[in-house]
Design goal:
By secondary structure, this protein is α+β, with helices and mostly antiparallel strands. It has 25 helices and 18 strands. The radius of gyration is 35 Å and the shape is flat.
């Protein structure tokens, strides 16, 4: 047996779920990799492969046998192993018996803590062939399959019926049975181009053999690149650009084993519809790629990816053109039907749609959001009346025919219908912007009205769900509260909206008119925002201790929080930072021990006994005057830069002054001075949190 050999694992199935194929492949890869590492079998690398009909791995230079090792089992201490006469105790005899040896066969191990009897045994490493069945089975058990199924009387459960299995180590088949099939060395080619079995010569010839003999591009990523290249090339020939949705590209890659891109056409009259409706119809129903001109307008073409290299591609194209016609006709019908009524006329229907059992209907929610959006608009130099109007119309498109068929167009269709109704352009834009950001890195609302409605919508949802005791838990977040919270933070910070979150949360909670059952709802939601803000700040490159320094003073305006955070990050780069952070920590400890943290009594000059405390008092008094205008305009960097200049004065105070003087009045005066000194820094952050 070789010390190292290549391994092929292939599980052949009926067509796997295309949207989940890449995820299943990655999980299978990780599961087998973890199993091999746990078994202490080394290897060079693992190459995953995946098509609609198979999950496979090729592992190069796998160690074919575990290393032999000495297993050590510790028994009783020597002091407890023998009695006064030197005879083995029951504890020692029991230990030797459990190891299957005599007492004389045991060794003694000495350590700093004493001596013990030990049993040492050389364990011969198992072969990879012996270990692989369990490793593969465990990897399959751990796949993220929400619902496993059983077929007929076949043993085991899987996402799809399994038809073949290859486990080939070098030239040898690893004997095993899995999910009702026995391992061999025969794979299957393309379902139509080459349905015959293919004998795999070796793990390293697996992929080339399938491509040349079986008409199967087994490499998922290579197949995806090929599809993207073919689609772009065809679009170029059509004098346009393909609209390549990454999710659609992934799904199409999971649908085909031998991709062939073909271009088709549809009637130009459909171009009168909103392009988003056409694209949704093509992508969602038919898995087609739309094509646009250089000016961004759609062209009357589509690109489909076939799973067969047809001898008569014109027939395939004609079939696809016939199929897409009724789909686009449906979209045109929905568009015409929806335009017969004004968007505002749908408001009454919202009373029949439940948002959440305890929180009322979508109509109730829209009224609450309208009130909050108007208030937010007033605070951000927007137009309250437009924000209120947009919020009341925001959910009306949910009951239109078009959104009923294409839910992903909510907001987008609202924008189109509002424009047709002659609504203010900013109101129309807000109907789409209310959902932004839809995902990480998505655009933020551009208009003040859109920003107000988006914020109000998200704050209402967060307050309502927390208020009835249904915050996110673990992986469950049905109302996407995590995304909503992060969206609120991003809008406020990245759009420079200096809004007080606590005030807005109080307003949102009050609008539920006693419906909420939880106490301190605003405080709960605010803490949730701080948790999300922590992740946001760390992603921006700030340090955890910098975040904690600002969090300690709990600014409730996210924009203000980030301004403080930037100032702290800049401050820590100053040479005075370390000394002042240590001094603040020392001051904090002294004040806590003397219960003087919150009080800030008057400092009396007449009680000064040392020049150093008088100098610090003068610096503190001067700082209060100088820092007031800087704090007023949130120039926190300027504040901390100024305070950095106090390092020598603070250091001298601690060098020359005994804070805990015997005289009670002198001691309290010095504590008051330290409290005022610390308060200057706490005007920005608690820099004592900064680590060295």
């Amino acid at each position: 047996m070789k010390d190292f050999d290549d391994l092929l694992i292939e599980l052949g199935t009926e067509e796997l779920p295309p949207k989940a194929l890449a995820k299943l492949s990655k999980a299978f890869h990780q599961g087998v990799e973890q199993g091999l590492k746990k078994a202490e079998l080394t290897f060079n690398d693992i190459r995953p492969y995946a098509t609609p009909r198979r999950l496979a791995l090729v592992i190069s230079k796998l160690q074919t046998k575990q290393p032999d090792r000495v297993v050590e089992r510790r028994g009783p201490a020597v002091t407890a192993a023998f009695d006064e006469e030197g005879n083995p105790t029951k504890a020692l005899l029991g230990f030797a018996g459990s190891c299957g040896v005599e007492v004389d066969d045991l060794d003694t191990m000495k350590t700093d803590k004493g001596a013990w009897l030990v049993f040492k045994q050389e364990q011969v490493g198992a072969t990879a062939a012996e270990l692989l069945p369990e490793i593969i089975q465990q990897a399959l058990n751990d796949l993220p399959i929400p619902k496993r199924m059983r077929w007929g009387d076949l043993p085991g459960e899987f996402v799809r019926p399994v038809h073949w299995l290859i486990v080939l180590l070098g030239d040898e088949i690893v004997p095993m049975d899995l999910l009702g099939v026995t391992a061999d060395r025969f794979t299957r080619g393309h379902r139509f181009h080459y349905p015959q079995p293919i004998r795999v010569s070796s793990p390293m010839t697996y992929a080339p053999q399938l491509e040349t003999e079986g008409h199967v591009m087994v490499d998922f990523e290579a197949r995806k690149e090929a599809i993207e290249g073919q689609v772009k090339e065809l679009a170029d020939k059509l004098k346009g650009t393909a609209i390549i949705n990454p999710e659609l590209l992934e799904e199409v890659t999971g649908l085909v084993e031998w991709p062939v891109a073909l271009a088709g056409n549809f009637d130009q009259r459909f171009l009168e519809l909103p392009p988003e409706a056409l694209i949704s119809s093509m992508e969602g129903h038919q898995k087609y790629f739309a094509v646009e001109a250089k000016d961004g307008k759609l062209l009357p073409h589509f690109i489909t990816v076939s799973n067969i290299a047809s001898q008569d591609p014109a027939q395939v194209i004609a079939g696809n053109e016939r199929v897409i016609l009724p789909r686009l006709s449906d979209a045109a019908f929905f568009w015409d039907t929806d335009r017969k009524r004004a968007l505002a006329d749908h408001q009454e229907q919202l009373k029949t749609i439940v948002f959440q059992n305890k929180l009322g209907t979508v109509y109730d929610k829209s009224q609450r959001v309208a009130s909050l959006a108007a208030e937010i608009a007033a605070q951000i130099d927007g137009q309250p009346q437009l924000a209120e109007r947009a919020a009341k119309l925001a959910k009306c498109d949910l009951v239109t025919e078009m959104v009923g068929e294409f839910p992903e167009l909510q907001g987008i269709m609202g924008r189109y219908y509002a424009r047709l109704d002659g609504e203010d352009n900013e109101v129309a834009e807000a109907l789409d912007e209310q959902y932004q950001p839809r995902f990480a890195g998505d655009d933020l609302p551009a208009t003040r009205t859109g920003q107000a409605v988006s914020l109000a919508e998200k704050l209402d949802t967060l307050t309502g769900l927390f208020g009835i005791g249904q915050p996110p838990s673990g992986v469950k977040d049905p109302f996407a509260l995590r995304r909503a919270a992060l969206g609120v933070l991003r809008i406020m910070i990245e759009k420079s909206l200096d809004l007080d979150l606590t005030r807005l949360l109080d307003k949102a909670a009050a609008s539920f008119d006693g419906t909420l059952s939880e106490n301190d709802v605003s405080e709960q939601v605010m803490q949730y925002f701080f948790d999300r803000l922590r992740g946001y700040a760390l992603e921006q490159g700030f340090k955890a201790d910098e975040f904690e320094a600002v969090l300690t003073v709990r600014p409730t305006r996210p924009l203000d929080f980030m301004q403080r955070l930037k100032a702290v990050a800049a401050f820590r780069k100053l040479e005075q930072a370390e000394s002042l952070a240590a001094a603040n920590k020392r001051i904090g400890n002294i004040l806590r021990k003397n219960d003087s943290e919150t009080a800030e009594p008057e400092v009396k000059d007449s009680l000064f006994q040392e020049a150093a405390e008088k100098a610090l008092a003068e610096k503190v008094s001067e700082a209060k005057r100088e820092l007031a205008p800087l704090s007023a305009k949130a120039d926190y960097t300027g504040v901390l830069n100024y305070l950095a200049g106090m390092r020598e004065t603070v250091d001298s105070f601690f060098d020359d002054v005994m804070v805990m003087a015997d005289d009670e009045m002198v001691r309290q005066n010095r504590l008051a001075l330290l409290n005022q000194t610390r308060a200057l820094f706490l005007g920005v952050a608690d820099i004592s949190c900064l680590q060295e």
